[in-house]
Write a structure and sequence with these properties.
heterodimer; A: about 290 residues; about 75% helix; B: about 425 residues; alpha/beta; Rossmann fold; 2 domains
């Protein structure tokens, strides 16, 4: 019974982890149709922002929840202004440009921070469930993921900015005719996507540590989740994270971590074969 | 040197046709001439493996300077030719050819991963250039042109497994990196556990990019082993130790490792996360011998007091260089066969890790093994096992009986 509870918590934390690493990508891809291959590096930058800030004496929670998204969000806006905005509507070109950007960021960070793993200890300590011990930080990740999902929903559904952003994505010319400045909306949306990636990088840094190349480990899973989820940003990412996270963790518990990874990829292949447009093309249609 | 159509074509492809055709006579004449003796160092100084390569290169520099300060070899100075393969296998091939054919070096020291060794070993064999591989590895290389100065699994696993069983109990849970090193290491742990009457309760392998170990940690708790043996490798896997500590497991189940500290894990992690992990290597900077203390002092004098950690790989390289120099002195020549014969005469070097002797039958080394515990970012040496023979490679390889062998055996365990 205790073990079942522990497994359930680990599944929940895997789902939350997947949601966090993919949500920024989903915002940028789902809203703007930009395939951001530098997404993994945004996560990596979030990790470095957190670790650098913590080591500089800033409170760890402030570093994770404020510094990381702020820094990476700003970098995102700068990148949108300098690179991405010239390439809207040219999907292959944006892929090339963001891929180059990803290599550049890895190189820059390696030059500044070196090629060794940096890290900080996980705060919060551990708790016991029966005879099992579990890091309390696991619950924190779940809480952050839930908060992000809820906040994103409210921001896009209930605020004026959300309405304007969704309108601009559907028909930029019409939005412009109604007095909205689409370039500004694009820049802010890209910034939000980047900030979410930074937040995820910050949240994960205390448990995984960071190296300049850590983005590579995340970016594939993030893409699989976003593609699997389909057109709807939030419903898609949520449903795909839940599906893949559950399959991955259960397979890991039942067999080995290698099979767990294989099961995740196999599930993704089957899913894309059955639902080429993603889960939300068939289910939860029209949701955010 | 045999000329088949294939080797000739390859040589032309490498832009080396002329040098290859003019063959050994020309090389020897060139190398025996006046001027410095060239020694090649091929270690990754950039890219993912640079954390290992840089200290190995520093070891090459220190050893070269020491040999030169003592008067050089055969009345000549040694000059280091450094190549940086950038953690890229293609560059290893290219630089090995360049060292052998263009620069005509007397010996090549280099290669870090087993993959890189198996890339350059055949090249150097083909071009008759002596090769030293100074890294701990899975064992089994059988090639008269190659000398391996690092420890192999039979040397350290045979000691650390019974040591841990005596300390903690007979049931072990193995976590290992999912490639040949991790797979082979876990087989050796299993063998020695069973020989000592213990039991491996489970073995988990992790791809090198896995960073989430939550389920693994819960599975270990469910299996209730007496201790955990880790052969995890690389930057991503460091998070295992972090998550292990965060889950409060350190007080419950002790841990040993065959890899921990090889990538400076004990410096990256906090003492709270790393203290108490037991490891076995040939070398630790804290080994309490006059030879080692003097060596550590020389190292810090040359490379600065802030040098993060003198690794086993660095010391292996340093000792490899000195063993080669002793071979040259004994041979009195840079002729490859004469050097090999001299090195096969049972040459020993009293290095920082203790006495290192080349075993003529396997071209591996008999060396000391130490067991240590991590304590406040330092290695607290607990036990020493003198003069361990390379029994694993010896079980499959006999270069005195079969001097023409040229392969890496997969040792059946």
């Amino acid at each position: 019974m205790d073990f079942a509870l522990v497994v359930a918590l680990e599944v929940l934390s895997a789902v939350a982890g997947l949601l966090l690493i993919s949500i920024g990508l989903a915002v940028i891809f789902g809203m703007m149709r930009v395939i951001n291959l530098a997404h993994g590096e945004f996560l990596m930058l979030g990790g470095y922002a957190t670790i650098t800030a913590t080591k500089a004496g800033i409170n760890i929670w402030l570093s994770i929840l404020v510094v990381a998204p702020l820094v990476v969000g700003l970098i995102g806006v700068i990148i949108e202004r300098c690179v991405v905005r010239f390439l809207y509507g040219r999907m292959v070109d944006t892929m090339l440009a963001t891929w180059g950007l990803s290599l550049l960021l890895i190189g820059l960070v390696t030059t500044v921070f070196g090629n060794t793993t940096a890290g900080i200890s996980s705060p919060l300590g551990s708790m016991s469930i029966g005879q099992y011990k579990l890091s309390l930080y696991t619950l924190f990740i779940v809480a952050v993921a839930a908060t992000v999902a809820l906040a994103l929903y409210l921001a896009f559904k209930r605020t004026r900015f959300g309405l304007v952003a969704r309108g601009t994505m559907q028909n930029a010319d019409m939005a412009a005719a109604l007095g909205v400045s689409p370039p500004r909306v694009y820049a802010v949306t890209f910034g939000i996507g980047a900030a979410l990636a930074g937040l995820a990088g910050g949240v994960l840094a205390p448990i995984t540590g960071v190296v300049p190349t850590i983005g590579v480990a995340y970016v594939a899973k993030a893409f699989i989740t976003v593609i699997g989820g389909g057109a709807s940003v939030l419903a898609g990412t949520l449903s795909a994270s839940t599906l893949f996270g559950t399959i991955n963790q259960l397979a890991t518990f039942l067999t080995t971590p290698v099979i767990g990874e294989v099961a995740l990829l196999a599930a993704a292949i089957v899913l894309v074969r059955l639902l080429p447009q993603g889960i939300t093309h068939r289910f939860f249609r029209g949701s955010l | 040197m045999s000329f088949t159509r294939r080797t000739t074509l390859k040589a032309i492809g490498g832009g080396a046709a002329i040098a290859a055709a003019s063959s050994i006579a020309a090389r020897t004449a060139f190398a025996q001439g006046s001027g410095d003796i060239l020694v090649a160092s091929i270690h990754d100084l950039s890219g993912g493996l640079d954390i290992y390569g840089k200290s190995m290169q520093d070891a090459m520099i220190l050893a070269t300077e020491e040999i030169n300060a003592a008067g050089g070899l055969l009345g000549r100075k040694i000059k280091l030719v450094t190549y940086d393969p950038q953690s890229n296998m293609q560059l290893y091939t290219q630089f090995a050819q360049q060292a052998a054919v263009k620069d005509k070096v007397a010996v090549v020291h280099g290669g870090i991963t087993s993959a890189s060794r198996e890339v350059i070993r055949p090249v150097l064999k083909r071009f008759n250039t002596l090769y030293f591989y100074n890294t701990q590895y899975e064992g089994g290389v059988c090639d008269r042109n190659t000398f391996s100065t690092g420890q192999t699994p039979a040397q350290n696993m045979e000691k650390i497994v019974p040591y841990c069983m005596k300390q903690w109990g007979k049931r072990v849970y193995i976590v290992a990196a999912d490639y040949n090193y991790g797979q082979i290491t876990s087989e050796w742990v299993k063998k020695y556990t069973q020989e000592n009457g213990g039991q491996v309760v489970a073995t988990d392998f992790f791809p090198l990019d896995v960073t989430q170990f939550g389920p693994a940690i819960q599975k270990i708790q469910a299996a209730k082993p007496d201790y955990v043996m880790s052969a995890l490798v690389g930057g991503a896997h460091i998070s295992f130790y972090r998550q292990w500590a965060a889950a409060g497991m350190k007080a419950r189940i002790p841990m040993a490792s065959t890899t921990f500290s090889g990538g400076n894990e004990h410096i990256v992690l906090t003492p709270q996360e790393a203290d108490g992990i037991v490891v076995s290597f040939s070398y630790f900077p804290t080994i309490d011998t006059p030879d080692n203390k003097a060596f550590v002092e020389r190292w810090h004098k040359r490379f600065g007091p802030e040098y993060p950690y003198i690794s086993e790989l660095a010391v292996g390289t340093y000792q490899g260089m000195h063993l080669w120099a002793l071979g040259v002195k004994k041979a009195g020549s840079l002729d490859r066969m004469k050097m090999i014969q001299a090195l096969e005469s049972g040459i020993s070097f009293d290095g920082p890790s203790g006495k290192v002797t080349i075993d003529p039958v396997t071209h591996h080394c008999t060396l000391d093994i130490h067991i240590a515990e991590v304590k406040n970012r330092k290695m607290n040496v607990l036990a020493a096992f003198k003069q361990q023979k390379p029994a694993d490679t010896a079980a499959v390889c006999n270069l005195q009986k079969n001097p023409n062998e040229n392969k890496q055996y997969v040792i059946k365990i």
